[in-house]
Amino acid sequence: MAEINWTREAEFWLRDIFNYIATDNPDAADRVVEGIYEKAQALIDFPRMGHRYAPVADREIRILLYGHYRIAYLIKGDGNIDILGVFHGALDIERYLI
Question: Where does residue 85 rank: exposed (0-12), middle (13-18), buried (19+ CB within 10 A)?
Fold first, then answer.
């Protein structure tokens, strides 16, 4: 079974999402962050459920969608997963993943 590792960068993005939403609605911020986390946990059983991120051909980077957010993750050679970041759909993620 795969293990999921949240990188420091991914944790930063998740905190930023929480703080942004919490300024208007702390309960909604909790729900969104918890939903993102739960969606990522599904990768333990289904690591390839996200679509392949084509611009990076030499590594298996995939994108999993949750509402308006994209969870970028890397499937490593040992089958474990690194969550690279959580990005709002309007953000150009190429500058962060390439």
Answer: buried
